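hiii so um. not sure if this is the right channel but i have a protein structure encoded as tokens and i wanna go backwards to a sequence. like what aa goes where. can anyone help
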């Protein structure tokens, strides 16, 4: 990609592996609803394959309280630090993420904040993806035009569609439940699709 100055990453299921946190959430749902974990998981997965937020849909279906998210179950993907370290030598790195309060502190605890120049997270900004405003906030703070930026994320709806509409380049990382998204239109087509962060280093 030419003339790229900034690379923005989503956090969950992009830089950070949330599989254990999702597992704990679905186990809690199963326990509250007095049904099997297997049923909850498979039903949630079916929703994800319909381009819906499966964990929230199963919570609604079973009419239980949404379990608190377990940030303590999150870990960086094995290639996250190497990817950020390498890319930060050539580009400015930013984060645009839907996260609860304390994103910077969590990224610091993971040892990766040192590679990130700008963190724009929904809880602190009062606006969340896919709202274009959160992308505009990030681009304005970075003093970067959309065409000089790349958005890397696992969600077609939250990451790829809005970033592409603004004129940013896009990379879909097929990790977590987001990999089950079925594309139905051109606006959902990322510039690149990768299965993990290591493949991004080959592109950029």
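sure thing!! here u go:
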């Amino acid at each position: 990609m030419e003339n790229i100055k900034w690379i923005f990453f989503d956090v969950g299921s992009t830089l950070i592996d949330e599989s254990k946190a999702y597992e704990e959430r679905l186990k809690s749902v199963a326990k509250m609803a007095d049904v099997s974990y297997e049923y909850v998981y498979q039903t949630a997965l079916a929703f994800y394959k319909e381009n819906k937020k499966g964990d929230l849909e199963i919570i609604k279906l079973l009419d239980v309280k949404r379990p608190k998210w377990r940030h303590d179950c999150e870990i960086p993907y094995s290639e996250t630090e190497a990817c950020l370290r390498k890319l930060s030598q050539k580009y400015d790195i930013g984060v645009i993420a839907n996260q609860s309060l304390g994103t910077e502190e969590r990224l610091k605890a993971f040892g990766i904040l040192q590679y990130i120049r700008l963190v724009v997270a929904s809880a602190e900004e009062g606006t969340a993806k896919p709202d274009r405003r959160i992308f505009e906030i990030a681009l304005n703070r970075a003093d970067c035009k959309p065409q000089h930026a790349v958005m890397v994320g696992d969600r077609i709806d939250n990451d790829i569609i809005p970033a592409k509409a603004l004129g940013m380049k896009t990379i879909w990382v097929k990790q977590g439940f987001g990999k089950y998204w079925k594309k139905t239109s051109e606006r959902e087509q990322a510039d690149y699709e990768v299965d993990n962060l290591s493949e991004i280093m080959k592109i950029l």
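oh and The longest helix spans residues 19-33.
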